Amino acid sequence: MTKPKVLVTRRWPRAVERRMEEVFDLDLNTSDAPLTEADLCAALGRYDAILPTVTDRLPAAVFDAAPRTRILANYGVGFSHIDTEAAKARGIAVTNTPDVLSECTADIAMTLLLMVARRAGEGERELREGRWTGWRPTHMIGTKVSGATLGIIGFGRIGQAMAQRAHLGFGMKILVQNRSPVPAEMLARYSAVQVPTVEELLPQCDFVSLHCPGGKANRHLINSRRLDLMRPGAFLINTARGEVVDEHALAQALWFGTIGGAGLDVFEREPRIPEELLGADNVVLLPHLGSATRETREAMGFRVLENLTDFFGGRAPRDRVA
Ligand code: DGY
Fold it and tell me: Which atom of ligand 1 is nearest to the CA of 288?
């Protein structure tokens, strides 16, 4: 039987690439340079499966040429870079990699929360630049995390992992805003309370962490009007998708001090970061590291392999999203 022809769009952990090579007729992008829309459009005509990731834009137009591709097995949980409706209309299945990255992504959200509250980025810059003059009672005073109130927007697997860390590790009070009602027993695990709207959540929180999907539905969910509803001194954490936050409005809130600060792992036009954010001291900026541990990146790859093996074996892939 001929092996399905598969394209991996970026370098993956070697252990996964090796296993994939045994199972499929595999093409690797050895240069690791992001593919253009034209590259992806051509690939759709040549491969049975494409394994894209967040750096691959797949809008409706790339599906125009009648494609050979039958499945887009995305490496990552977020898939707002793929027009899933257009893919579905062409009969192309789409899968993602949930679960395996929830803990590490919540770890990065907690890292950002702690760093911005305790001014860790500012402190490190001061020290490395030789500006530290020594301990003093009034030096670089931050905000206490333990016992503070955390609002979590989007209570899927990553939101729950964040609640676990914040409540069980730091004794934080948890408020939740989610599209659908969260089962009472799940809220009870973290003594969490669900509030009906983002508007009701924001004024009650010392920290707000975003864990909802990206895409059109949540574009600029956090805008200037909602930033104004946050407590003065409160902090915004985003490890979800860049488009969920209006970056210009956030920069204004940071520069005018209407909120205390922000911790961001994702950006609207990655890898481009607005100057107004780069210049602000009260924001911690990380280069999309949420899932970046060896264990998780390998697990993501093996999850893609499982989805593909099921698909080409005639079984329903467990992570089908379209
Ligand atoms: C994810 O899994 O969605 C990460 O952000 C990488 O795409």
Answer: 5
Spacing, Cα 55 to ligand 1 middle (Å): 10
Both 17 and 107 in one domain: the answer is no
Q: What is the CATH number of the domain that holds 65?
A: 3.40.50.720
| Ligand 1 centroid to residue 58 C-alpha, Å | 15
Please say if the pLDDT value at position 103 is more than 90: yes
137 & 225 share domain:
yes
Q: Is the C-beta atom of 300 inside 6 A of ligand 1? A: no
Residue 317 placed within a domain? no
CA quadruple 275, 281, 283, 289: dihedral positive or negative?
positive
Q: Give the confidence band of 273 by pLDDT, cuts at 50, 70, 90.
A: very high
Q: Are both 113 and 237 inside the same structural domain?
A: yes
C-beta of 291 in contact with ligand 1 (< 6 A) = yes
In a domain, 321, yes or no: no
Q: Whose CA is nearest to atom 6 of ligand 1?
A: 76
Helix (H) or strand (E) holding 5: strand 5-8
What is the DSSP secondary-structure string of 251-307? HHHHHTTSSSEEEES--TBTTB--HHHHT-TTEEE-SS-TT-SHHHHHHHHHHHHHH
* Catalytic positions: 241, 270, 288
pLDDT digit string, tens, across residues 124-168: 999 999 999 999 999 999 999 999 999 999 999 999 999 999 999
Contact present, 47 and 5 (Cβ < 8 Å): yes
CA of 134 to the centre of ligand 1 (A): 40
Distance separating alpha carbons of residues 199 and 112, to the nearest angstrom: 23
Name the average pLDDT for the chain: 97
